[in-house]
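Quick question: what would this complex look like in 3D?
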Amino acid sequence: MGPRMADEIEARLIARCQQGDEQAFRELVDRYRHLVFALVARSSPERTRVEDLAQEVFLRIHRGLPYFRGEAKLTTWIFRIVVNLLAQESAARHQSREVPLDPARPAHEPRADDRTLSDLELRDRLDKAMARLPPTYRVLVAGHYLEGVKYEDLAEALDMPLGTVKTHLHRAKKQLRELLETDLR
Amino acid sequence: MALDEDVLDQAIDRWMRERPTPRAPASFTAGIMTRVRQERWRSEQYWDIGFNVAVASGLLLVAVGVVGLIHVSGFTAVGRDAILLFAVSMMTLADRLVPSLPVYVASAGLALTALGLWWWAENE
C-alpha cells in the first residue's frame, strides 16, 4: 500500500469517526494502540499507570476528533497528545520531587573500582534515569528507539524544527548518560 | 564494563534498541471502548439534566410572566369580582329552588316510576 493510499484510508477512517461511528474508532484504536502504549510505557516513569495513561490518550483523541481538521498528520496529533499528557502528569505528580536512581541505596555508597554492570542492572538504572529526564526528552528518546516513529512527526508534534529535535535528542542522551555516570560514581 | 563515556553511550544505545517493545494488552481496546461509552453516557446525563432544568425554568418563567401580566393588567381584581358574582348568583338560585324542592323530587319520582313501568312492559 502506497503512502497516498494509506493517507486516504486514514482520512476515511477519521471521517467515519467524526460521524460518530463507534466501529471506526475501534479500528483507529487497534491501529495505533501498540504504538501509543509503547511510547507511553517508554516515556512514563509511572509503570503501574501505563495502561491508564495510554487509554487516556485515546479518550483525548476521541474527544478531540470532531475538531480534527486534518491539517497535521494523525500520528503527529497523537504524539502531541502523548507529549501534553505526559507533561501534565509529570507536573501534577511532583513539582520538584525527583525519582531517586536507586531508593534502596544511598548515592554516596562506596563501590568497588572494578565494578561492572550486568545488563539487567543497567536496564534498571536506565529506567530510573529516564524517569528523571524532562517529559519532552523522555518522549524524544523513547520515540527515537521505537519503530514507526519518525523524526518529522516528533518535530511537528513538538512544534520544533527538525534540527532542534535532533539537538534535543542529543542533549537528552547526554543527560541520560550523565545521570547514569553520577549514579555509578 | 568500565565507566567510559563511549562505552556507556554504546551500552545505552544497544539496550534501548534491543529491549522488547511494550505491547498493549489484549483487553486494551475493549477497555477504551468501555470508557468512551461511560463518558458518552455521563455527557448525555449532563445534557438531559441541562435540558430538564431549561424546560422547568422556561415553564416557571412563563407562569411568572402570566401571573405578572394578570396582576399588571388588573385581571386579578376582575377575577375576584367574577368569583364573587358567581357565588352570589349560585346562592340566589339555591334560595329560589329550595321552596319548590319537594315538588321537583315528587315529579322526578313519578317520571322514574313511569319509565320503570314502561321498561317492564317492554320486557314482558
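Answer marked as accepted. The interface with chain A takes residues 1-3, 5, 8-9, 11-12, 15-17, 19, 21-25, 28-29, 31-33, 35-36, 39 of chain B (CB under 8 Å).
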